[in-house]
Amino acid sequence: MAKSSITFSCNACGATYNKWSGRCDACAQWNTIHEDRGISAGPPSKSLGTKRGSAMVLTDLTTHEPPPPRSQSGIAELDRVLGGGLVKASAILVGGDPGIGKSTLLLQAAAHFARNGLKTIYVSGEEASAQVRMRAQRLGLTDASVQLAAETNLRDILTTLDAEKPDLVIIDSIQTMWADNVESAPGSVSQVRAAAHELTSFAKRRGVSVILVGHVTKDGQIAGPRVVEHMVDTVLYFEGERGHQFRILRAVKNRFGPADEIGVFEMTGAGLAEVTNPSALFLSERGEPTAGSVVFAGIEGTRPVLCELQALVAPSPHSQARRTVVGWDGGRLAMILAVLEARCGIPFAGLDVYLNVAGGMKISEPAADLAVAAALLSAREDVALPAETVVFGEISLSGALRPATQTENRLKEAQKLGFTNAIAPAGGKPVGKNGITLNTMSDLTGFVGEIFGAG
Ligand code: TYD
Ligand code: MG
User: Fold this and answer.
1) What is the pTM of this model?
2) Which ligand is nearest to the CA of 216?
3) Half-sphere exposure (Cβ direction) of 406: Cα atoms closer than 13 Å
4) Ligand 1, atom 25, residue with closest C-alpha
């Protein structure tokens, strides 16, 4: 007898089982296991080896493949993050915290793509069409021929899309979608996974670009879009800090372009505006040079971005000193503190250390190491760095400084914004003249000695 295709999965954590149980072994929740009846209506799985399959299609690696057709929105920050425009038959996930501006961004994108001739359908599972229309009015988008629907039933959505044959479909949000063949509440892992699976296979089958909106919550209460990430071609995260106007659209996965590319936007009264010079924005709140503040010349994707690192070092009243970091990796901070102590003899024991990337920017480049070390030392010694100086470079565990990539681009951006000095590791590619005095060093001890007169 063929094996049954019925499986069970946990709504809370997504673990799958071949029989029902009252309690999920993986996450220890009760009553979260439900039956998944064949998500896509394919034939039941047959046990392999009993029947001959049909031959799979083999093609040669040398076959010339034309680049995928792309459509541009005209929103340069968005097109760049997509890898040069929207690829036909691709599925894109746009994740972000609730209220960050995903619906606003995608409504604007929908209108732009529609103006450029794409047949666009915007399906909202969260707002009524009238609400979406009101938002479009406020954003000045009412001239664009975007079709709206307020619907959550996946079967109805797919039926309509099959008949309408759009070029682009936006699903806002994947958590509100409801597949009637899956026995759990909308927003649960099984529902989110089933809906994403149906919609991505629809994109491939019909040659339609599908954008899925996914809410992420910090505490992970609602089934986040994480389960969707591996199904889609492109994953973009829309980030920003409350209280700051700017938002960053970051590609974390892209089968059709570079990952790590960012687009910068500013939330205004009339929707999201493109920020073409992000460095100027990130540095706009910077005042006179102060101890603990250092400007890092970074690279985000293909673009140089300058931002300010702020450190505060103070005697700790606690038995265990605090290490708090916002916008950078806590593990990396611990490493730099350890290297400063072991290689330069500068201890941070008994001192609370706070590190913040100004403006809510998140940095993941190792090239920020030297800027972080500079900010920590500057805060600890209460000495400001020389004015108009940018810092970048990676620090190794031995205390040696490693040259960063794209030195030339970093320096050019710094010069454009009025900086006159740069501190960077020695070695690497020679750079041309660009009006910036480049001060190179080969190890951290030399850096400490030269800048802080210690070591
Ligand atoms: P929204 O796009 O609804 O967020 P999400 O879909 O990610 O949940 O954006 C909501 C916030 O954006 C809301 O707090 C108001 C603000 N906003 C503006 O500041 N300007 C605007 O033009 C619009 C439409 C929204
Ligand atoms: Mg929304």
Assistant:
1) 0.80
2) 1
3) 16
4) 271
Helix (H) or strand (E) holding 368: none
Radius of gyration of the chain (CA): 26
User: Which amino acid belongs to residue 266?
Assistant: E
Q: Which residues contact 310 (CB under 8 A, 6 or more apart)?
A: 292, 293, 355, 356, 357, 358, 375
Q: Is the CB of 270 under 6 A from ligand 1?
A: yes
Closest ligand 1 atom to Cα of 238 = 7
- Most confidently modeled range among 170-174, 181-185, 425-429: 170-174
Among residues 406, 405, 389, the alpha carbon closest in space to that of 447 is found at: 389
Q: Which of 104, 134, 245 maximizes ligand 1 atoms within 8 Å of its Cβ, making it the mutation to test the pocket?
A: 104
Return the DSSP state at 429: S
Reported as a single tens digit per residue, the pLDDT across 260-282 is 888 999 999 999 999 988 888 78
- pLDDT per position as a tens digit, 376-430: 999 999 999 988 999 999 999 999 999 999 999 999 999 988 899 999 999 877 7
